[in-house]
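thread: overnight batch results

M.L. [08:02]
morning all. the overnight job finished for the chain we discussed friday. pasting input first so we're all looking at the same thing
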Amino acid sequence: MARNAPSNIPTIPPGRRIQTRRSGVHGKGVFALQDIAEGEVLIEYVGEVIGWQEAQDRHPHDPKQPNHTFYFHVDEDRVIDAKHGGNSARWINHSCDPNCFADEIEGRIFITALRNIHAGEELNYDYGLIIEERYTPKLKAEYPCWCGSEDCRGTLLAPKRGWAPKGMEPVKKNKKSEKSKPEAKSESKKIAKSEKKPEKKLEKKLEKKSDKPSDKTKSSAKSPDKNKDKKPQKAKGSKK
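M.L. [08:03]
and the structure it wrote out:
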């Protein structure tokens, strides 16, 4: 979930500090090539900026994986579609006990270190996916989490009230903000990967993994026909 930050765009240090490669958690992942200090900005989540209607029209990116996108919800009017013009940020996996967070600065999303990160560690952040439907065991199972942390929720879905990723204060949401637009972390990241919104409510990355990986690759149990009418959920971010 992204948060408000000072109104100045950060400078990302030059040099190759991160690398995309196969992840033991899910599909591809992004890893630190050198030690990274807490608060260091690692990469900007970029892609084509589109509106929610366009995001819905494009969803799903892959009918075989309806819950997987590269969407990152910036606010009520803007979604970043990293499938078009995206970079390594779209491959950063989710974790319920993350070492990074998504920082929103002047409408742009920057992945920032939440703590000191050692060379070789995989980067991750909490997608904070929130969708409009009632959270049932079946729905949660459609957005599984394999981060393996002691605090793992078992799902990419985040509580709808009084919740925020570690290191960030919970945001008070009004009823209007609780309703997310048609879905997509993300993926998410997914359709899931949700992160979040004005007021600054929880941001959303949509995209990201939705099905259990097999041999460290993603696969989806959902059929295109069954999910063809499912709208994208707002979320941070999304992926593969």
